[in-house]
Hints:
There is one protein chain. By secondary structure, this protein is α+β, with helices and mostly antiparallel strands. 50% of the residues lie in helices and 11% in strands. It has helices at residues 21-33, 50-58, 66-72, 79-85, 93-103, 109-113, 116-127, 138-143, 145-155, 162-172, 178-208, 214-223, 230-243, 246-261, 263-271, 276-286, 318-321, 358-375, and strands at 2-3, 11-12, 37-40, 44-47, 62-63, 136-137, 292-297, 301-303, 306-308, 313-317, 380-381, 386-387, 396-398, 400-402. The chain starts with a strand and ends with a strand.
Amino acid sequence: MTAVADLELPAFDYSDPELTGEPWHEAVRAARERGWLARAEPIGFFVLEREAAAFFLRTPKATFPGTTILELQGVTDGPLWERLKGNLLDLDGEDHRRLRKLVQPAFTPPAADRHRPAMRRHLARLFEPIAGGEPFEATAALTKPYPALMIAELMGAPPEDAARLGVWANLIQGQFDPIKIANEREALERAAAEFVEYTRALIAARHGDPGDDLISVLIAAEEEGDKLSEEEVVHLTSSILVGGVDTTQAQLAHALILFARHPEQWALLAERPELAPQAVEELLRYEPITPITARITREEIEYDGVAFPEGTLLFAAAVAANRDPAAYERPEEFDITADRGRTKPLTFGAGPHFCLGANLARAELQEALAFLAPRMPGLALDADPVYDTPLGIYAVEELRLSFEPR
């Protein structure tokens, strides 16, 4: 058995601001071709093969190191710290199972399907101003407002607050990006504090006027006894409101980029919108907007002849695992008709912390692609996309598109 620290491994600085777009994929691909492990300079290790990544995501001997990552960057108190301490991501064992069980019914496939008419309604309204086909900035016009409107409706927030929710969500998710923690900590903490204050006000309003929304369901659980405390309601509401916005908006933006670069795939989807579910799975595989998911070992773990001591920080790299040649045929091809078998991408994670909102995100993406493809023939990039860093949520900051109006 060899200690991981003693291995000669390829390394690259994942915080390099130049590593976005294709250079990011090239760096990951080069590391994966040299083996299933690489050094994540300067703090941990990348796990680059699908089977290994799934193992570390699922094992109870490792956990999500949310507060550890903050501590490494000198954040040990304040709004970001307090928000993450009660987050579902930071909980394990019975506390995690209990809270997740209470909200899980709202995120089953049938529950997500009930929101499809609302998805179509929001898409139709957002499409009206851009229907003429003039070049437009897609993040502001489409990809950001769409999931924000949906999560506001699901939670029972006023639709006019959707834009604010989107801004807060984008800022707060920077807590998982060391570059943003270093350079934008004050803005991130201000957003976290404002958002928690907003969440408390929203919950207080629902106490007096319950409705057919998830916050009302959580409050009812709180009032039934010891199922939920008020702080747990705050943390759950905050987690869902943030997690349900920036993930889907980023994945939809990447979808439009990919289809603009693969016009034959877009034309096929326009002709056969029933391919939307398969197209979404291929999108999730090919360009995961959670490229790396962190774990920290609770105790020594042995895997494939390598010993990982307690406290080892690992990054399960969906960006590499989803294109692992051992798991997929022709993994570097983006093909919405490809039969990828039963091997699911790791974009939503794996194990107890598998993304709670995966079914809702899939439904939102399916509806968006099925709606847009027939209405936006000749989809094309009007300028090079501007990417955020691939740390935390891999977002698109600016995306100018054009298409040929019918």
